[in-house]
Specification:
heterodimer; A: 99 residues; mainly alpha; 62% helix; B: 147 residues; 0% strand; rod-shaped
Chain lengths: 99, 147
């Protein structure tokens, strides 16, 4: 091979190196941490009260039911807030990670 | 390669360009030196070294574009994450506020109803008495039959 041919070979190899450099890809090492849920929705649910056996009146039963309904409503509130928390964070995660 | 993250982009770009330029200059200098009497012996080493630098410079120049794009993506991602975390935190505060406020209302509601039941005790009971079976069945509804 003469000088011109060596020069062309060198140029071609240099171009190959240039393109192979361009072709190298990397994944972005930044990840989104799992979000922390607020403390009130992480608490254990309250147990429903049973009616003591010595209670004989209808008003006792009614009182007990009222207290239990209150507990249910509190739990219902926390449950809907859990759904709200999940929906919000899912949406945020989607917006952040999708291109 | 992670060390590159601490070096400013402009420095890297300059350094990489200099490698390429040095390679080209050395290669052509080597070609010229071949024909000059006193520098003839340096021709080949210069061309070899120039070729190596030229190839390294070409590769690094190609990689630099990728590196810069990569850094831009990292910065963009970090910014997005910061915004998302702030929004998530904001939502958490709203959730806590709602739970605290509404739980208070529910408790007040319950206490109000219990108070009314106490007040209307006579009216509600009217001689009606619960048998132990009723209490047992009622409690089974609360705890479940399996317990």
């Amino acid at each position: 091979m003469d000088r011109t041919q060596w020069g062309i070979v060198l140029l071609v190899v240099a171009m190959m190196f240039l393109f192979s450099g361009c072709a190298s890809t990397k994944t972005v090492p930044v990840t989104m941490n799992f979000p922390e849920a607020p403390e009130p929705i992480l608490t254990q649910p309250e147990q429903l009260d049973t009616l003591p056996e010595d209670k004989k009146e209808l008003s006792d039963l009614l009182e007990n039911s009222t207290v239990n309904y209150g507990k249910y409503r509190e739990l219902q509130l926390k449950y809907t807030q859990w759904q709200r928390w999940y929906d919000t964070n899912r949406k945020l995660h989607k917006e952040t990670t999708e291109k | 390669m992670w060390l590159l993250n601490f070096i400013p982009d402009s420095w890297i770009a300059f350094f990489v360009l200099m490698i390429l330029v040095a390679g080209i200059v050395m290669y052509f200098a080597g070609q010229i030196f071949k024909y000059t009497p006193f520098t003839k012996q340096y021709g080949l080493p210069l061309r070899v070294l120039g070729s190596i630098l030229l190839l390294a410079g070409a590769y690094l120049n190609g990689g630099l574009g990728v590196e810069q794009e990569y850094r831009a993506r990292i910065a963009e991602m970090q910014q997005k994450i910061e915004v998302a975390e702030a929004k998530s935190q904001e939502e958490n505060v709203k959730i806590v506020e709602k739970i605290v406020t509404e739980t208070k209302i529910i408790k007040e509601d319950t206490q109000g109803t219990v108070y009314l039941i106490e007040q209307m005790k006579e009216q509600i009971n009217q001689g009606c008495e619960l048998t132990p079976e009723v209490v047992e069945l009622y409690n089974e509804g609360i705890t479940g039959r399996g317990k």
